[in-house]
């Protein structure tokens, strides 16, 4: 028979899934001989069964609870519902994953009109006992019977006003007695039933209430935010009450074993003399710093410090401890791993390693890789008060403040004057590039996470908020409306690309930094990880930055951003507008030396490291201006005609990638030519350039066969045949994945382009889906996560696995990696390791995340998880 | 050692791959004792080796040819290059697959200044011998030495003019002798070398020339058109010459054993007395009908008729025979299966079965299923002279003539007057539906094979040509330009949706018909096929038509076309424009009875047969008017706003299919409700409606789980739970295929939507790809075929296979089928059979194709191919 109820002494630390975190810790502390008030835990499975049975407590459970109460009575020598020496208990929730404050607790359970007399006799403190009783009725009424808190509070306030009292401690026993009586009437009025005098009824109803609180609104939201499954359920801990409010040799407090803000190794917390725990939390009285306990109760303090050390060593982590002192005796009510800031988190890990408490593997295991990455962008001081005016998509992380400009030219002008601007546009086009470059941050009203603004901003590491639909442009008055607020050019705003917030005015910022702790952790990570970590970098600045952040090469160098450079755009447009091969060739001849410089710079920055250069990928119309109602009149007719000719109803599925290379081979030839020339110049200068050439959007082996021949021909012509420049392809179409065995015969490497692969596998246009239905899908849990953020292992992942397996079957030397945005996502990186990829490539700022995540999965796999 | 050369007597009919079709037939006829001039065949492999060796004849081949010539000499008693009784030969091409007229032939080879004297002595006809010689030099000069034909012809013409002759037969021996001398000088002049007198040199050069002709321009194009691989090569047949031009007891002719136009069982052909074969082909003299041979040479005719019967029985097919009579002796030079019209083809097959020559399986094997389908549309009389003004995409087959109208309203007005119109539009929108319905055919300037016009037209069975880019609209002059030609409303044009032709004026049409032969063949097909054949039908008319054509149910009933009905569009638009659930519900309540009628009609038409109804699929903006420069001013502001809000950058990957059902469940609920109500009314009327409900665009199991629950809830509410209405899904996304095991747990059937699956697997937007790069891909053989026409077995096929296997793994009862356009394509149907699908579903007019193709693959598999 599976037991529903276990005494603390019957449980263990390993039973966290069954007993919840709190229950497992209480059991563990009990087993270690710590001063824990005795009690028992109702399992998480019981909670699930409660829901399965239509929210009814099972007979078996009730029996076991009664039995456990009897054992508790014999352990404490107290009697539940007894007139003398009554046993009072707390009833608390506790899931396997900590959800602090989300579920309900009932204290002082077991009091009724009879047992309160027993408590008076026992404590010799009528005022205390009646205070307990009224607290219990209030809590029970609220939590179990669902009567709102303020209904009771109003009565208490009225009583204090009548008696002209300011503080609860001034209330007399008789006044509490009167309040008890009023509270009971309130309960009768609201529930049409008497407050239950039967203590067993009290207990069972309280247990049910805790079960129910698993599905209250705030608990459900907390679980969703923290990706905690709904299915795990909560345990219920029933524990003998101890009292911190029996006099001045009593007290209660909460403490962290280290500073949760900074990580400093020093006990941090608060306590109150003569008080119950809830007083500390409720803020009714101002608690005193824990250090003062050394003066107030020196022996207790010393014992507490020892226990803190013991608990830290036992749980090998900073602890968050609740304690109570009852008549000079210290009780530990709860211990758990303490929440902390990301900064503190890293310091504590490094310190724990230095102290020999944990090893580097364990430290890495505990790093929140995602959190690590967040600290690498300039961001809004979390302590600053901000006025959020609107919210859009968090398209490129980091924050920027500046004065509003509506045009790219204006942004550039301002920058030349040394002024900071935020470029605000309905959406951006390639012609805005110089503005994006000049601005501190970008804000657009339209476009998704892969819109032009988003992609370019991420590439440049500029903060960007996209698709902020609350923005409304008013060209007549040359202003911008956010709701009722009109903003003009020159007004200051702040854009937070990490959260999507648009804030009025400037706000204080925190600069990004690779702290000493981070550096240490990243060094450890490099010792364990199997995956190479490469960067997505399109220019020398990004390339250099990525080396700083630990990149072992460039895994994706996109050439389209080079084409979008404002100086080049006219030449690129000439190339596209060319009606004849000769005209196009002429424009390409002009581009050749520019591209050569691009590649020279990047290969130089990455000297001795591989640089995977992807040939031109986007559809050509992306390099032409956009036509809409406002622009069509003023534009050159030839351009308008060409824009219309190049129009596609689904450009994502259109004439792009290697399809351009097939139909306009001269463009790819020019690019390969430029790569070869840059390589030769670097070799001549004594450097060691390692270019690799990547063909995008291959769907059929013949495309790669033809283009590889072309690339090899150019390399040969340029006299670089003996450098063995690797030639590979993106695997970003389902067809490429399922025919990878054919394609691998012509590829030196596969780079899984998971952005496009996700789009085509799901048939989700990222731009369209994120604004329209994808959020609904994630909210309704139709999808476990946004598949553009975390790789869809079931679907897209299967295709990647197939691609790797089939590819290696026909080409054992094949190098495989990933260069979509998933390359910087910890969960996705774990999958990449599992599936046997050789490298992940991500944006420079995500490199630390990738390094740690790669180490984490390597360590986990080594441990056999 | 692999032999390069085989005597006819050493070959056999089975060696077609090695000896080519002609060589294998000559061998076979030789072995059957037919009067075939002796000779030998050089294998197709020798041709490939010739190319592999850089277009040089191998020593081994030359040796074998010489040896074979010696054998030929001993068989004929003639001497190659002999002064007396010289052996003359023909050298002809002959690939494994017939390519009539595409490659080269040399006749009379072996003549030189000495042997011509031998021929004079032997034939006792100097004029004949010198004629042969000049023919040979001319042919050799042209075919082997590459001198253009007219260079020789001019000399012959000059000679005849000088001598005032009108006909070649009037030329004297001396004049031929003079021409021979002139021809030899011509050759010296053009090649700087003498005409080769050495007969072995002649022979080897001629063999090389035939090899080379394998890769001449017309042969390459013919192979591409007919999907003949370049790799199979041609054989070369060297055969003793016989002469039909030695006098009036000689002659030559070509005959079919049955009429190739009608299929009538009667020898059909032509002959010439005293002539060589090329005279018949060249049209220099007018040949006489074969029947007259009975008068001219009664014994020969009788022998020929017998041989025709023998050959037909041997080859079990209508034969195309070349014959020569040399001095009263009949020689068969060649026999092959004759080309024929599609009408003749069917009649011959049915007759051959009736005559007991072949069985029904063999007959079915030989049917060209695709050709069968073509005859089912009204089409332009192939004998009519037409003026093609422009060409677009053949979007919906069939042809229509009518007067041009530029608006849907005008088309409708004209129809009400009983007038036939062609609706010509830049592109169509849902608001044009009534015009498409009213017009004979549709012509658009923009849009691909899946554009609105194309889809709607195919659904209605209306001829349609799309994306005809030569059209240019001139609204100012209310006319349409095709090149220099201005067309006004009222001008007549003809649209050929089978070929994409746009023709000026009206042209004679042929009506579609299911002939007796077709009916017989379809009956046979039904006996063998394993696949069920269903139709894609959206209305009662199509449903009834499809039953006529043999549909066993409706495999795809699209509901969006119902929404596009002009009476509904305002209601549908209200539904879409609704800002609140209540407003939307009101519009849906209006649609409910209309949809009920739709389903009632179709279920009634298909009484007792399953009807798979697909819930709404396209993105909602398809039901709103399109906004462009010309319309935006005049439109209701609310509509403009909604159109903009619904705008998607890649609608194919956007908010459509089941994503609508998830976000607007009330739409799907209304549809299921309507299905249930129609079903109940039919049951009450004593009918047996069998609806099945299909959810489109499922990508994740949770979508289907949620929507299935919703559908079941409605069915339950309507009291139809015990009808067990099957609920299934389209598998049209790569993710659905790879996670089919999960999805199948909630599906009663899978219908592979191969249009969308092809789009997403390749990332080809059909609309964009076909106009831009897909043609290049097919032309350059990057893809073996347009994957929207013929299923891409390697890529998309793998996903289908995976979908079927995984689906059946978790749901053994799962019914699987296909409902994309591939469901009507023979090659794709073969794949469907192989992969174990239960049914194919296609448009009504393609049902006969599907029935035959399904039988063909069943027969082939049974035979173990």
TrEMBL record, chains A, B:
Residues 515-858 form the PEP-utilising enzyme C-terminal domain. GO terms for molecular function: pyruvate, phosphate dikinase activity. Residues 57-291, 303-347 form the Pyruvate phosphate dikinase AMP/ATP-binding domain. Its cofactor is Mg(2+). Its EC number is 2.7.9.1. Keywords: ATP-binding, Kinase, Magnesium, Metal-binding, Nucleotide-binding, Pyruvate, Transferase. Residues 421-500 form the PEP-utilising enzyme mobile domain. Belongs to the PEP-utilizing enzyme family. This is Pyruvate, phosphate dikinase.
